[in-house]
Amino acid sequence: MPTVYLTSPPDAAAEIAETVLEERLAACVNRLPSESIYRWEGKIQRKEEAILLAKTTDDAYDDLVSRVQELHPHEVPCIERFDEDHVLESFATWRAENVD
């Protein structure tokens, strides 16, 4: 089962997290403040962002990505998938029960 790593402007992060939870595309979303430094259009940018870690399932992954793309204000949102080799069985069961 995957964990999806997302970054978002802080003012959009709550809506993204709450929407994917309400629509049962994720069982849990952790939100962390961060500063991102990146290259965009040939210039170094420095922005405050929120990191979102969305716990989802293989079946819901594509729908979660599509929904985040609809909600995200950036032209090129950061959406990365991390597949877990090992996860506590009780957590995996809970996650599966809370994602449609």
UniProtKB/TrEMBL annotation:
<dbReference type="InterPro" id="IPR011322">
    <property type="entry name" value="N-reg_PII-like_a/b"/>
</dbReference>
<dbReference type="Pfam" id="PF03091">
    <property type="entry name" value="CutA1"/>
</dbReference>
<dbReference type="GO" id="GO:0010038">
    <property type="term" value="P:response to metal ion"/>
</dbReference>
<protein>
    <submittedName>
        <fullName>Divalent cation transporter</fullName>
    </submittedName>
</protein>
<dbReference type="InterPro" id="IPR004323">
    <property type="entry name" value="Ion_tolerance_CutA"/>
</dbReference>
<dbReference type="InterPro" id="IPR015867">
    <property type="entry name" value="N-reg_PII/ATP_PRibTrfase_C"/>
</dbReference>
<keyword id="KW-0963">Cytoplasm</keyword>
<dbReference type="GO" id="GO:0005507">
    <property type="term" value="F:copper ion binding"/>
</dbReference>
<comment type="similarity">
    <text>Belongs to the CutA family.</text>
</comment>
